[in-house]
Structure formats: C-alpha cells, structure tokens
Specification:
The chain contains one helix and three strands, in the order ββαβ. The model has no long low-confidence stretch (mean pLDDT 77). It is mainly β. Strands 2-1-3 form a three-stranded antiparallel β-sheet. It has one helix spanning 36-41; strands at residues 6-12, 22-26, 42-46. The chain is flat and about 50 Å long. The longest helix is centred in the middle third of the chain and has 6 residues, at 36-41.
Length: 71
C-alpha cells in the first residue's frame, strides 16, 4: 500500500480573491489536526492526487468532538 504526498489547500473564509491560497504538503501517513479557530478562519480541502498516483484511491477520516447545546 504505497501512499503519495497530498496537498491540503486553505483559502480564507469568506473567500477573498486578493489573498493567496495557503498550501500544506502532507507526506504519506500524515495526521493533521485543526483547532476550531482554524476551521472558522479557513476553508480547506484535501486535493486529489496527480494522474501519476498508483491507484488514484485516497481515504479521508474526520473525527469531531460535539459539544452539547446550551440549555
């Protein structure tokens, strides 16, 4: 199971065309955690691999901590 590098791309939320996109290159088997502030400030996407990927398959897992609503 060979994995390749993936590109995690960030844009400002709401999107501001004058501001550049931020990119983070993730090696195989990389784990990324984000704070709520990061999630609120940026829109993010794990971009598809290149056509040179062995099988073109990728898996993304998302784990969230849910806070109960205030009564």
């Amino acid at each position: 199971c060979g994995g390749g590098e993936r590109l995690l791309a960030f844009t400002w939320r709401p999107r501001e065309p004058a501001k550049p996109m931020l990119d983070l290159r993730l090696p195989h088997r990389c784990l990324v955690t984000m704070s709520q502030l990061c999630n609120d400030t940026y829109a993010h996407a794990l971009l598809l691999g290149s056509q040179n990927d062995e099988d073109g398959v990728r898996y993304n897992l998302t784990f969230r901590v849910m806070q109960p609503a205030a009564a």
